[in-house]
Amino acid sequence: MIAVKNVEKSFGDTKVLKGISTVFETGKTNLIIGQSGSGKTVLLKSLLGIHTPDKGTISFDGRIYSELKDADRRELRTEIGMVFQGGALFDSMTVEENIGFPLKMFTNKSEAEIAERVNFVINRVQLVNANLKKPSEISGGMQKRVAIARAIVNNPKYLFCDEPNSGLDPKTAIVIDNLISEITTEYNITTVINTHDMNSVMEIGEKIIFLKEGILAWEGTKKDIFKTDNEAIVDFVYSSNLFKKIRKAQNKEG
Fold it and tell me: SS3 of 193, please?
């Protein structure tokens, strides 16, 4: 569990986060949504320790990040997996070398142990016959699978995903969503996803927070979205006719 309490962050005279408080739950897919400039990325980077909040605290299962010593912070970082928006794979490395990189950097595992773990996660994310291929030789969807495999290879407690469906076709995006959701449940990970993809919200939004101009304007589940009267989230989600029709149908059934 990650607890965020009264977090504020400014850059110069611009206050980007204005007293955010929420809890990202363990074993669930927690989504951060909002328009461009709402503070999504700044919040995600604050969770990762890239930005230091001006006020407030962020705690990981009771460990307040700002109060940790350097050694404890380094240890906490080994418990974090990250899926970057563009994948951030090493072009010169093969798939299995990309996935094994965190193990070589942050553990004392032997080559045999690394190979065993790498092959395990390759099978888990269903990467078929891709071990020795370079990122340029596989599809965008497979590259995202490699990024996910690399993020979970070190058995993280916390998984962060920044726009994991960016650049993917809708069908492949759903596959990636479901894979992240399955892994979250299977390994009881606290997963936080920064996304603008409303299909992801509808597919895997177990906990959703909506930011508007640096304020937490709404939070709930994908089911709650269909019932809420909160104007900010309604305007954001139902800007398309498709979601308006879904909401109308849901309300009739309810």
Answer: strand
